[in-house]
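Need the bound structure for zinc ion, inputs here:
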Amino acid sequence: MKKHRKIIIKNPSLKKIRNNFRKIIQKAKSDEINNIIKKQRELLNQMKKEGKLIPELEEKSKILESRKQTLNRVFNESICICPICREIDKDMVYATRSKAWYCIDCYETKLPKRLQEKWEPKYPLTKEQVLEFLDELKKVIEQCQTNLDLSKEILSGMDISKNDQKIFLETLYHYGGHCDCEIMLNAYPKIMADFDLEMD
Ligand SMILES: [Zn+2]
Ligand SMILES: [Zn+2]
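Answer from helper R.:
Posting the output first, comments after.
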């Protein structure tokens, strides 16, 4: 089997048709994502009305969240879009190693660098500050609105600069902390491991 597959279309009208197909697929994906977000909001509002978390609804929301993430991932890996430059009108090449399609430019220039770069967590906070942050977040975690608002509020309250917040939250995001409750769920064990701390 060939190591990589390039698909190049030279004919301008075929190019146009191809690009329109990609646009249609992108639109369908965005519509579905918006639908999911709407449904998640409804579930959240329902719980707000009840004034408490309802495990069944939380479960439903979690299933929706994973569907949303899968849709985004599948689309980003597809031939419709280059996941690096986000263009949808380029000739594409399949990268076997990262199992995704890239535009030829990015494949040749940016991808090799990306694969070489070893990711490292970045902590602009001290160990004590990280622990304080986690303690505070634990107290309010049930109010997660599937975003990072609670975390940002806590960090701002601790006088952490916006820039340091961004770096810190990017590390947490990399660890699967895509929203406040996911920070506790996914990132927390990894943060503790980074600081050689025992989980309580
Ligand atoms: Zn690209
Ligand atoms: Zn959450």
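Comments: The first helix runs from residue 12 to 50. The pocket of zinc ion (ligand 2) is lined by residues 144, 146, 179-182 (CB under 6 Å).
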